Structure formats: C-alpha cells, structure tokens
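Page 37, top half.
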Amino acid sequence: FGVGAGMAIIAFWGFVAALVLFFVAFNLLEATLPSLVSKVAPVDAKGTAMGVYSTSQFGGAFVGGLLGGWVHQSFGLQAVFVAGALVAVIWVLLAIGMRQPGRYSSRLLNLESLPGGAVADLAQRLRGVPGVVDAVVVVGTDRAGVRRHHCGCGAGQAQCGAHAGRQRRLG
C-alpha cells in the first residue's frame, strides 16, 4: 500500500505540474497571438485579419475536437496523444521557416480639427513620415490609421539596413 500511495502522489504532482505548464503557455499565446496579428496586418485590413484569426482559432478547436474524438474511437486513448504530438511536430517544422516579425505599433488619429481639403492627400503625406509603414484615411469618419515601424533608425522597415538580422529565420 505504501509504494502505491507514493506513486500516486508523484503522479498527482506531475499531473499538476504539467497542467500548470499547459495553462501558462495557453494564456501566454491567447494574449500574444491576437496582438501579433493586429500589429502585422495592414491598417486597412486589420478587422478582416482579426476576423480570419478568430474564425481559424475556433474552427481549429472544432476540427481538433472532432478529429480527436474520431482518433479515440478508432484507435484508442493513447493514439490521441500520439496524434497530438504528430501535429505539434508538424507545426514546429512549419514554424522553423517563419520570419521574425518587425516591431510595429498602430495609432488611430482624430482628424476632426483638419479642414476638408487637408484630408485628401493625408494618407500619402503620412506614409512619407520616417518610420511610418502604412497609413489609411477613412473618408467620412474623421479617422486615420497609421502603422509605425520601431527600431530606433527612423526609417521604415523596407528602407532600414539594420533589419537583416530582424528578418532572420527562426531556428
């Protein structure tokens, strides 16, 4: 009885540690991935990008649950963990080829105080500001969206020679 109880306690705390690790990683990704999508998406397609991300996230949860149930029913419980590990390995292989994204920030500008004629070519003038990568003026809303690149160089990412290291492949 004593050895069995000891093994049960070890298994319990191992399970607790694995659960804590899983939820720490899950909560980290749950916060950082939407932020990454929002920062990398073009200013005029930010809403669409976030919608595609959310649809993919919840569609993936549905398909994953469906396939996990099928694998369990067809091949057993251990096969579910093997299939999950296989999907994780495939994801890591795909992620190795991804480029590290640049550092961006987005700003929403209020244009209410500008005269009507000044808004016409505002997007083009904003794109000429050092560090501005993308600018969109939404006519009729008195709003402009700007995405800036940050590295301290003052240039956009395409013009900055210091970004070769930032664009390296992860691995």
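Page 37, bottom half:
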Amino acid sequence: LIASGIGGFLSQIIYVRVHENANVNNYSITSFNINLDSMPVANAVSNLFVYESPFDGFATFNLTTVNTTLLGNQTGLVSKFYLTQSDAINDVNQISDSTNFLNTINEQYIWVRVFNPSNLTCYQTTSVTSFKLIVVDTNNVVNIPDANFKAAIIATGIDTNNDGNIQQIEA
C-alpha cells in the first residue's frame, strides 16, 4: 500500500495477487488506484455590511469577500452563492454575478455552497452555510471619536448587529 496526499486528496495504490485454488504458484499480480477526497466544509462567515448616506437600504456587495474565511485552509475548492438554502443544497439558481450583487431586501440572507470542482459528488450538509447582507444608515451611527472608548463600549455587548459600530437603536 502506497499513499500520498495533497490538500485533502489522498491517492492509494492497492496491489492484488490472484491465484488458482488448485495451484497457488499460478498467480498474477495487478494494481489499481483508490482516490479519496476530503469532504468540503463551509466555515461560518461574518455578515457583510455597507454603510450609506443617503440611506435607501440597497447596496452592491462583493459576495466573494467571504471566501478566505469560508474556505479556511482547504485547497482546490470553489464557492457558489444562492438566495435560498434549498437552492444551495440542490445546486440550482446560482447568483450569476457574485462580485456585483445588489440586495433585494435589507438584511438579506445569502447561502453559499462549497464544493470540489473535480468531484461534484463530494458533498455534505456542512458544505452549505449562510450570512446576511446588511445596509446601515450612516446617519444613525453614533459617532464616538475615541477608538479605545468605542471598543470598550462595544465590548459590553451593545453592538447587537456585530458591525463594529453603534447605531442609535442600539444606544
């Protein structure tokens, strides 16, 4: 048995000896490869925020900015983005432009599927996760010029939407 692996992929050569029952000295040896892929995992990612003024609740997002966290140290994997969990699981109705996506509602969920393009059957439910697109009205952000004071206030848990700012409704 010889095994080698690169980036979650394992290839093994299996050697087989076949012989006659009546004459064990009459045999043949052959081999075949077994290739094993690691199951892709979609790591949890943070929500994406856009701050705007004037505020209309709609903004353009580059969904692919989550890929570094999403994939972690997994190599050879690809991500696709969807509007529903069902679409992500069934791999249908992919968002066509994931680098220039205009949200359709504020605080919109986006679902993402991670897969291995060389082995499309290598999939499990942990290959799908979600995050939210949130457009924030900058007129409602409380201005705290002292970064240390702001960090201390946020550390108390007041930043309920986890965007790194304090909105008037959180204060």
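Margin note: The radius of gyration is 25 Å.
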